[in-house]
Amino acid sequence: MKLCCCETVRFHPTPRNIDLCSRSKIRKRKRVGRLISEPSPGHFSSGEMDLAAARCWVVLVSMAGKQQRVAIFTTASLPWMTGTAVNPLFRAAYLAKAGGWEVTLVVPWLSKEDQVLVYPNKMKFSSPAEQEAYVRRWLEERVGVLPRFDIKFYPGKFSTEKRSILPVGDISQTISDDKADIAVLEEPEHLTWYHHGRRWKTKFRKVIGVVHTNYLEYVKREKNGYVSAFILKHINSWVTDIYCHKVTTQDVPRSVICNVHGVNPKFIEIGKLKHQQLCQGEQAFFKGAYYIGKMVWSKGYTELLQLLHKHQMELSGLKMELYGSGEDSDEVKASAERLSLDIRVYPGRDHGDSVFHDYKVFINPSTTDVVCTTTAEALAMGKIVICANHPSNEFFKRFPNCHMYNTEKEFVRLTMKALGQEPIPLSDELRHELSWEAATERFISVADIAPAMSVGQQAPSSQYFMRISPEELQKNMEEASAFFHNTISGIETARCVFGAIPNTLQPDEQQCKELGWNLER
């Protein structure tokens, strides 16, 4: 996994003689009406300087005039408890809390027929306003009152084949042109596979993609999976290249590998309580091992049950509970019952539920997440985590309670060892690394969303007079590629061949009515 640092963060003019960054010495010098933050060399690592600059920028931009407008588009919404519903919601809230941004979260609106398929307990909403109220109430119960941010809805449909929500029509229209500064595409490949309409880079000054799901791992498990994964990898690289200026958390064109997600503050509070109990010599954990995740085979259940099946003798003392709901629940439960181990299966529930507080070991063999949210949550609660040594777990290597295995034998050894020892109390520094405050700082740094981007482009250099520069040639090729994609994505037959839901070029009359949109003919 490659690790990259973003460029120096640039700022608009701010009042003089303000020492806002005590950790880094900032030299101020005039350059095209901007200030440039330059931490003195030798004091900090490049990563520390990036984060220091990001922290300074949050304060500086809040003192500036016009706020930047950030629109966060995602592929799911509460009450669906999935990472692409929860993480973008927290990102919107904490960007709004940091100040300097006028934030809008843009989520899919489903018809009632699809809501029943997606939302737990057959929950249904009659209007977007009703669902918005639910989302805000859920958030405030977990983080308290935060600065307001807008929530808007775009039309979506649930694909039973892909087990995910796909956009209908040109969802960039959700944001008016006068508010189109920065777009954050949570799952950019997912949002652009079948995009037909205005090009994201044309509408927005900057487009940041945040990859959540390792679709290649999913596809590899299907028939002819490696061939399909090869094709999908190139399609993903193509669409993210033509629609995003920068992508985080996965190795695709224009990417910066960085974990920009945090955990619900509730998990950190649980961890602090457990830390206090351990420091006082009390027993903090009374239960053994567990796993929680959507109950589909590709979410780690295949690997987990295979490991447990092969090593039943060595793991004879293991008692483990599995929590999850999903399409494969019955099959997973039947497979678990065939093992000689004490494995029990329960319906899915919120990871912050009190039933999980006293578990000591979280076992997560899944490799289909880009960064696994449940692993971060378990570490925040002070638990020992057993997971695969895989790029998706790179961020967690710094945590002493995270034990990674390379082989099946290592899995057995680490699991049995973890059951017989107590977790190491988490330091304040590492606890902060899991927080949304730290994740927001990292996001600001790698996304490079400083106001200096609004400065007009410099005039072309005379050395390129009467000939095309390499940059101009690349831009022309990219525009031609985007034109080709837009043409293909506008042909219904081609869309269906590549897996789009039929008749999703435009929202239907019912969706427009529910969203208050004018139906285009």
From TrEMBL:
Question: What's an example GO cellular component term for this entry?
Answer: chloroplast outer membrane
Q: Which terms does the UniProt entry file under GO BP?
A: galactolipid biosynthetic process
Q: What is its main location?
A: plastid
Entry superkingdom? Eukaryota
Q: Which organism was this protein described from?
A: Dichanthelium oligosanthes
Q: Give the EC number(s) listed in the UniProt record.
A: 2.4.1.241
Family note: Belongs to the glycosyltransferase group 1 family. Glycosyltransferase 4 subfamily.
Location in the cell reads: Plastid, Chloroplast outer membrane
Q: Which reaction does it catalyse?
A: a 1,2-diacyl-3-O-(beta-D-galactosyl)-sn-glycerol + UDP-alpha-D-galactose = a 1,2-diacyl-3-O-[alpha-D-galactosyl-(1->6)-beta-D-galactosyl]-sn-glycerol + UDP + H(+)
Read off the Pfam families from this record. Glycos_transf_1
Which GO molecular function annotations are given, in alphabetical order? digalactosyldiacylglycerol synthase activity
Q: Which SUPFAM superfamilies match?
A: UDP-Glycosyltransferase/glycogen phosphorylase
Q: Which UniProt keywords apply?
A: Chloroplast, Glycosyltransferase, Membrane, Plastid, Plastid outer membrane, Signal, Transferase
Q: What is the taxonomic lineage of the source species?
A: Eukaryota, Viridiplantae, Streptophyta, Embryophyta, Tracheophyta
Q: Where is the Glycosyl transferase family domain?
A: 290-392
Q: Mind telling me what this protein is named?
A: Digalactosyldiacylglycerol synthase 2, chloroplastic
